[in-house]
Design a protein that fits this description.
The protein has 9 helices and 26 strands. By secondary structure, it is an alpha/beta fold. It has 3 domains: 172 residues, FAD/NAD(P)-binding domain; 124 residues, FAD/NAD(P)-binding domain (3-Layer(bba) Sandwich); 82 residues, Enolase-like, domain 1. The strands form 7 sheets. Strands 3-2-1-7-19 form a 5-stranded parallel β-sheet, with helices on one face. Strands 9-16-10-11-12 form a 5-stranded parallel β-sheet. It has a 5-stranded antiparallel β-sheet with strand order 22-23-26-25-24. Strand 14 and strand 15 form a beta hairpin. Helix 1 runs parallel beside helix 6. It is globular and about 65 Å long. The protein binds flavin-adenine dinucleotide. The site of flavin-adenine dinucleotide has 37 residues, from helix 1, helix 6 and strand 22.
Length: 407
Amino acid sequence: MPKNILIVGSGPAAVWAAIAAKKQDAAADVTVLSDEACEPYEKPPLSKAVLLDKAAPEDALIAGKDGLAAHGVALRPDTRCLSIDRAARAVVTSSGRLPYDALVIATGSLMRELPLLPPGMPRVHYLRTQAHARELKAGLAACKHLVVIGAGLIGLEVAASASELGIEVTVLEFAPRIMARACDEETGALILAEHQHHGVDINVSTSVTQVTPQLDGTIALETADGDLFVADHVVVGAGVKPDDALAAAAGLTVQDGIVVDEQCRTSNPNIFAAGDATRFPGPQGLVRLENWRHAQDHGAVAGRNAAGASDAYRTVPSFWSEQYDLYIQGVGWPQPNPDQRIRRKLDGKSTLLLETAGGVLSYALGINAQRDLAAVRRLIERKIPVDPAALADPAQPFAAMLKAKAS
Ligand SMILES: Cc1cc2nc3c(=O)[nH]c(=O)nc-3n(C[C@H](O)[C@H](O)[C@H](O)COP(=O)(O)OP(=O)(O)OC[C@H]3O[C@@H](n4cnc5c(N)ncnc54)[C@H](O)[C@@H]3O)c2cc1C
């Protein structure tokens, strides 16, 4: 009997789990259960190219232009997994019960909702799906003033896209600085300056205390400081939380994320989990990551192991964000107290922050430094000892540091 592998979800973790499971065991029946009606698509373009009309949401299918079928994987669209019957090894879905030999949960993240600006309120947008992006794009077509709540990655990407469309944009951020979770102060200040250069009004250390829909359809937002902003549309980018309810209801171990071991196994040996929904062993205990590359790589390990392999997931995490002509990219594990923080001065708007711990690079954050960061990633992965003076010197190519070790 071929092994029956079910994958719940439709993001990169689910799709790469399915493709990897089929590669690992070509005879297995691999099925993706998605609560969306369409072929799984990439989310990163939704806040960038899609809003700027440079791409349609359906242009970027995760499994490639021919979809999951081209990989020998079955897709059940419009099929929400409602519960897991662990004893019977079956899932209950919106369209019936399905048995499994191995199950991968890749349910991703849910958006943090603001009670004053709930999803569904007219002219209030949250951005996670194709449908959200289409609705926001339609709203922006006649929008003069957009208010964005939250200066994290998605909020600032939407702010940049809207500003490039000629819309007046105000950003309201609760924290004392923008992108506080993703960036050090100096890199954050460079990104702030770019937004200000484009005329975006960024307000930090502030929060919305009152929301009043106006008769003309606009929304008045009052802040704790007594400032008043009237928006044609509002986008909420207040972060995400793991979608772990299905796993929790099935009695799997959950701690703000589905807890998995390094092989992506949950507390039940036949059930694996991957991506944004999980908490997995990092270098200093269990961690969560909310980025695309992690979801893809974690999913692939979960899929292979669901099909019989015993691979361990070890990652050098990375994220990226695109705002105007800035390509912001972080690689590695940021430490609370790195041994050294070194800034390498680069040309124009490019910049690179490098952190070391124990004589090796531990983390790097760059703006428009993709080539350098590709080499830095290999230095981090291979734990190659580095000389701080050479790290600070733009005349010393990172690729040479890799070669020096190899010879
Ligand atoms: C607008 C936007 C822009 C982004 N830009 C970047 C970027 O530039 N760089 C970066 O690194 N990351 C970016 N991200 C984050 C990245 O896309 C996520 O980290 C990644 O998608 C997580 O993948 P995942 O497979 O774990 O979960 P998700 O992509 O969240 O997919 C899970 C999906 O599973 C489906 N599902 C959930 N529950 C069920 C169920 N019970 N039954 C059936 N189906 C279910 C849902 O449709 C859900 O969408 C962005 C995210 C968004 C929303």
